Amino acid sequence: FRCLSVRKAVVSTQSTGTTEKQNFVVFDMTTHPLMDQAQKQQVIRKIQETLLARWVNDPQRIEKRSLALVYLAHASEVLEQAFASLSDDEYDLAMKRVRELLDLDPDTEAAKEGADEVFWGVVASFFK
Q: How far, in Å, CA of 38 to CA of 50, rounded?
């Protein structure tokens, strides 16, 4: 209930999103697409840069907001759309790195020195 209230408040106070019903053949679902195409492109670019240009092999060294964005994009099933503009080689590399992130054990990552336990706890709640 709390997340629903927060989501509605963000959508109503920001000019970047909207609320609309999408028909998915069997059921209708409320979605919140981005209205501002410039911001949408900025989010897509951030995801692509995180997985390609700014990639480091240690997830502890990846900026937490960028890492969260990748995990949330995957959970929202919008990575395919974010990777649509990539070449085949870039697409394959980005998907390989997403798979590496998804294969990480959040409990192991949280136990590492200097790790953000709350962040990895949230990741665990999304994918367990």
A: 18
Question: What ranges make up the beta strands (E) of the chain?
Answer: 20-24, 27-31
Which of helix, strand or coil describes residue 84? coil
Nearest-angstrom CA–CA distance, 99 and 39: 26
- CA 83, CA 91: separation in Å to the nearest integer? 6
pLDDT digits (tens, 9 = 90+) for 86-120: 999 999 999 999 999 999 999 999 999 999 999 99
Would you say residue 62 has pLDDT above 90? yes
Taking residue 71's Cβ as centre, other Cβ atoms within 10 Å add up to 18
Tell me the CA distances in angstroms from 9 to 3, 21, 49, 101, one per residue in order. Answer: 10, 17, 30, 31
